[in-house]
Amino acid sequence: MNARAERVANHELLKQVNAALVYRLIDNQGPISRVDIAQISALAPASVTNITRQLMEHGLIKEVALQASTGGRPAISLTTEQAAFLFISCRLGREELQCSLMDLSGTIHQHSVTQLQRHDAEGIIVALSQAISQCLHSTKLGQHIIAIAITMAGLVDPETGTVLYSPNHQIANLELAEELRSLANLPVYIGNDTRALALAETYLGAAKGCQDFILVSIHHGTGAGIISNGQLLLGKNRNVGEIGHIQIDPFGDQCHCGNFGCLETLVANKAIVSQTKALLERGHNSRLDKDNLSIDIICKAALEDDPIATQIIRQTGNHLGRVLAIMVNLFNPEKILLAGEIVQSAPVLFPALLQQIQRQSLPNFNRELQLEKAHFQGQGTMGGYALIKRALHANDLLQQIMQQIDDKQ
Ligand SMILES: [Zn+2]
Fold first, then answer.
1. Which CATH number fits domain 85-197+381-408: 3.30.420.40, 3.30.230.70, 3.90.700.10, 3.20.20.10?
2. 262 C-alpha to center of ligand 1: Å?
3. In angstroms, what is the span from residue 218 Cα to ligand 1's centroid?
């Protein structure tokens, strides 16, 4: 590239970055006036006028008139347009595929659940393609679909859209985003489900406005999403928070990762059920039926003071609490959110967790720590919402949407 071409390209990139900055400000703080945008962003008022005009021409933002509290002329402010922009969010679970058609406010317009028949790459691609196609066909005239998001357990490379490792399906090294992009000629975003849900909690959930917080999710496995200084921690391989593989018991059961006694072998729904069953088989007194156990039943029994269920939930709290204490020492979060069926036992579980955290982390770090249930429970497709929102705020998707709209006209 010659010097002039390079200058033009840099100028164009700067314009795009500024557009994303203005969009993000309006999305996070709107309704907001142009004057305030210029002040907060340190952009020249003329630039703000140009950028907001461009965003309005593409229908991404709109003007609203706010009546000043002192009376007089209403002030014109800007907000983002959310209902007009739809996307498809899929959560690839262990046994089922959830697929939601959502808009940028997080409202779900349509939702489907499909049982997965096959767990190999071809089977997974077929299931995803069918669910996405159905969603695409059900959109109404004038609705604009901007992108597709897919979240799943395991390790993924969000930049290339490649699955690196899946604990549930044989899809390692599958270039999933590339496989699906051609379906509708839409951008495809892929992410780890727990990490994406952590982001969703910051946008719409229980961690709104939190700069430092950790989401811990307990289902078939145990994982965490760490938000530090307002950013999702990703690390070298773009995946941080595999707390399920911290060793708790060197002589414990073997984990699917190959190691022994990982947290996940003790604190995950299946592990909790099998520990309960083992205690019942030894003949301990309980109203639980060893042949009819589930995490929901155990949580309910713990709340009703059943001795075995209470013991199991406390023990779960002790194991998990030790790992949370490590997390508190490492990351000093202001809040830890817990997601999973296990939160039904919160009155029994949380005191055990807090006791371990208080014993094993620095008092300065744990004194004001808040431990709460996550806002999104069993709403897996909200993770995809966060991936779309992040892409929109980071310029990439914003430019693609404007291009999509220009191409249509
Ligand atoms: Zn492991």
1. 3.30.420.40
2. 5
3. 14
pLDDT tens for 294-314 read: 999 999 999 999 999 999 999
**Distance separating alpha carbons of residues 14 and 332, to the nearest angstrom:** 35
The Å distance, Cα 268 to ligand 1 centre, comes to: 12
C-alpha 102/C-alpha 87 separation (Å) is 6
pLDDT, tens digit (0-9, with 9 covering 90-100), for 230-281: 888 887 777 788 899 999 999 999 998 899 999 999 999 999 999 999 999 9
Alpha-carbon distance of 387 to 314, in angstroms, equals: 35
Cα(252) to centroid(ligand 1), Å:
11
Tell me which residue of 99, 107, 106, 175 sits closest to 137, measured CA to CA: 99
The span from the CA of 223 to the CA of 151, in Å, is: 14
What spacing in Å lies between the alpha carbon of 148 and ligand 1's midpoint?
Answer: 31
For residue 304, the CA-to-ligand 1 centroid distance in Å is 32
Centroid of ligand 1 to alpha carbon of 277 (angstroms): 22
Q: Look at the domain 208-373 and name its fold.
A: Nucleotidyltransferase; domain 5 (3.30.420)
253 alpha carbon to ligand 1 midpoint, in Å?
Answer: 10
Would the pTM count as exceeding 0.70? yes
Report CA(244)–ligand 1 centroid distance (Å). 6
Domain boundaries defined on the chain:
3-80, 85-197+381-408, 208-373
Centre of ligand 1 to C-alpha 154, Å, is 12
Domain pair 85-197+381-408 / 208-373, same fold: yes
| 376: exposed, middle or buried (Cβ count in 10 Å: 0-12, 13-18, 19+) | buried
For residue 249, the CA-to-ligand 1 centroid distance in Å is 11
Segment 362-407, tens digit of pLDDT: 999 999 999 999 999 989 999 999 999 999 998 889 999 998 888 8
Spacing, Cα 243 to ligand 1 middle (Å) = 9
CATH class, 3-80 region: mainly alpha
Tokens for 147? 């992108």
